[in-house]
Amino acid sequence: MKDSIRNAQGQTEEEFLAAYDPNRYEHPSCTCDACLMTVRDGRLQILLIQRGNFPWLGDWAMPGGFVNMDEDLDEAVQRELYEETGLKRPAYFTQLYTFGKVDRDPRTRVITTSYLILCPPQQTAKMKAGDDAADADWFDIRKETVKRTEKERIAQLVMRCEKRDLTIAYEIRDRAKDNYIVTTSRLLKRSNARLAGDHYKTINKAMDVLQHRAVRTGILFNLLPREVTLRQIQDAYEALLGHPVDTGNFRRDIKKMLVPTGHTRLVRGRQSALYSFNPLVAYLEENL
Amino acid sequence: MKDSIRNAQGQTEEEFLAAYDPNRYEHPSCTCDACLMTVRDGRLQILLIQRGNFPWLGDWAMPGGFVNMDEDLDEAVQRELYEETGLKRPAYFTQLYTFGKVDRDPRTRVITTSYLILCPPQQTAKMKAGDDAADADWFDIRKETVKRTEKERIAQLVMRCEKRDLTIAYEIRDRAKDNYIVTTSRLLKRSNARLAGDHYKTINKAMDVLQHRAVRTGILFNLLPREVTLRQIQDAYEALLGHPVDTGNFRRDIKKMLVPTGHTRLVRGRQSALYSFNPLVAYLEENL
DNA sequence: CTAATAGTGTCTGTTAGACACTATCTA
DNA sequence: TAGATAGTGTCTAACAGACACTATTAG
Question: Does residue A5 belong to any structural domain of this protein?
């Protein structure tokens, strides 16, 4: 009988659970953040919300909030995103990192798990962001490596909202120190706005993940419409990397993941063939 | 003046923070788990502790515990590891994943962040694990891909403690489903013990990370003494991958990361040259 | 000498980068 | 025709896998 199994205190599992008091100790607050990105007109964009309260009043932040007791972490981030933006079923989402420094939030001890969330641009059409009245807006985002040696990488992470004439620019430095990588950052002087708290850390990591997994795992296609031209894919890829790639080589490689739909499109110049993504050849190595 | 900035409620930041009540809502409990691994005698090993209380009484678990209010997440996992095993300064550690399903712990709502922690075998010498009296022990661990197609990967995750004649074997199936990877698992019949709760998920991910980053980032060397022979490195690498690799090719590639120390070692047969790891050439791409 | 361990050389097919080229459409 | 966009072909250097080979030690 399962009930006859007892622990060192002579309790059955039921007795043990009944006596368990989760509030014996104080708990940290648990929150989640959503790094939401899309590609519009060949530009990679991130959704940011201007904070209307302390802390970081006036700074720009990713949507996010507290995790309720009765919802999974994954559900919480999607609920928060829906509440703050109206976005319903993102094409893709994956966990990025959990931040747990004691003093990272002045309100109280907060442990935050951040997610990368992607959707194609048409999914964002009905979202609140972009209204003149809204406190949310899309920022063009770019991460470029400025200098790379074997022990150090210096990159710039730049977010720009043309409509509001806002620039948020960070320098990110990764240095190999013994067995670890030490990351430091600073807000560049040309910025006229900034990110709330340690949000730059999540966004920086999101860019790394995006750039690294873009083609191999096919997550690039979560940023695009179902039927696309090769040029559109290349534009999205270049937006993501922040630099142009060779057309011939890119086509040679990307075609392995595509099936022609038979349809064509004509804007100007020569007609272009349309393709759709074949998920069967997407590489199965998310779990790194 | 900073004090003159007020929010929509007319509060200054100080007033806002003074009025902030973190306990307005109930909070989940936050815990951390340590997946501690080493390489001993050419075999990859993981430290597991047999649970002495509910839940999962008698099952094997990673060391871990609650995060205190006044310690960083990174500190918490190292403290727990020290308390439960006596290990002080691990050679390497990195965050793996945060698990947040509502019902994953029968005691209460628990959100757990898991870490991969590596140390060379000599660092484990003074640890409690391995005593006959101890509830902790080292298990040989292996993850092998059994079958791999473009849309599915089937692997076996096997932990074995010879001394106690314990086998814990899982089958892990990763399937590409639309844009996600769905992972399922089952305890194989030849097991005579099992892992607590969802700990197999962390251990599975740890093996993926280890196998993927082993050579490129040089984390392999955190499992080895400072001075090593090429054969020792290859043994560790093979232990980690779970299958042999070509000696010539491995040496050709690994030498790029090494500097000869000038010393030699002789056990049987031909003398072997000793090398040390050159961290300057370790690849700088942890952040994926 | 043999057994055991350490270490090298070379061939081959695949891939990544560079870059020059051709094709089809409108006006 | 020019201008614009779409798409192809080819060369080369680097790399990964397979595998046969040589070198040094003890006894």
Answer: no
Q: Which nucleotides of C are covered by protein (CB under 7 A)?
A: 3-10, 16-20, 23-26
Q: What is the pLDDT of residue A150?
A: 66
Contact between A105 and A12 under an 8 Å Cβ cutoff? The reply is no
Which residues does chain B have within 8 Å of residue A280's beta carbon, measured at their own beta carbons? 150-151, 176
Q: What residues in B contact A213, CB-CB < 8 Å?
A: 288
| Separation between Cα atoms, residue B16 and residue B5, nearest integer Å | 11
Cross-chain residue pair A284–B179, CB shorter than 8 Å: no
Instruction: Please indicate, yes or no, whether residues A166 and A252 belong to a single structural domain of this protein.
Output: no
Give A41's contacts (C-beta < 8 A, 6+ positions apart): none
Domain membership of residue B253 as a residue range: 225-287
Sign of CA dihedral A53, A57, A58, A59: negative
Return the higher-pLDDT residue of B146 and A34.
Answer: A34
Measured distance CA(A262)–CA(A260) in Å, rounded: 5
Query: Residue written as tokens 């798990």?
Result: A113
Chain A residues closer than 8 Å to B65 by CB? none
Domain count, chain B: 2
* Same-domain check for residues B88 and B147: yes
Assess if residue A132 is contained within a domain. yes
Is residue B251 domain-shared with residue B154, that is, in the same domain? no
Write the pLDDT tens digit of every residue in A165-200: 999 999 999 887 766 778 899 999 999 999 999 999
Per-residue pLDDT of chain B (288 residues; tens, 9 = 90+): 445 788 888 888 888 788 887 777 788 999 999 999 999 888 999 999 999 887 888 999 999 999 999 999 999 999 999 998 889 889 899 999 999 999 998 888 999 999 999 999 888 877 766 555 568 999 999 998 888 776 788 999 999 999 999 999 999 998 877 667 788 999 999 999 999 999 999 999 999 999 888 877 788 999 999 999 999 999 999 999 989 999 999 999 999 889 999 999 888 889 999 999 887 666 555 555
| Among the listed residues A173, A197, A236, the one whose alpha carbon sits nearest the alpha carbon of residue A42 | A236
Find the nucleotide nearest B272 (Cα to C1′).
Answer: C6
- The reply to whether A192 and A282 lie within a common domain is no
Please report which helix (H) or strand (E) contains residue B287, including its range.
Answer: none
Backbone CA torsion sign across B18, B20, B24, B30:
negative
B interface mutation test: which of A213, A284, A286 has the most B CBs within 10 A? Answer: A284
Higher pLDDT, A42 or A272: A272
| CA A51 – CA A57 distance, rounded (Å) | 5
The span from the CA of A252 to the CA of B123, in Å, is 49
State how far the alpha carbon of A112 is from the alpha carbons of A140, B74, B112, in Å: 24, 13, 12
CA of A251: nucleotide with nearest C1':
D7
pLDDT confidence of residue A1: 46
DSSP characters over A18-49: HH--TTSS---EEEEEEEEEEEETTEEEEEEE
Does one domain contain both A260 and A153?
Answer: no
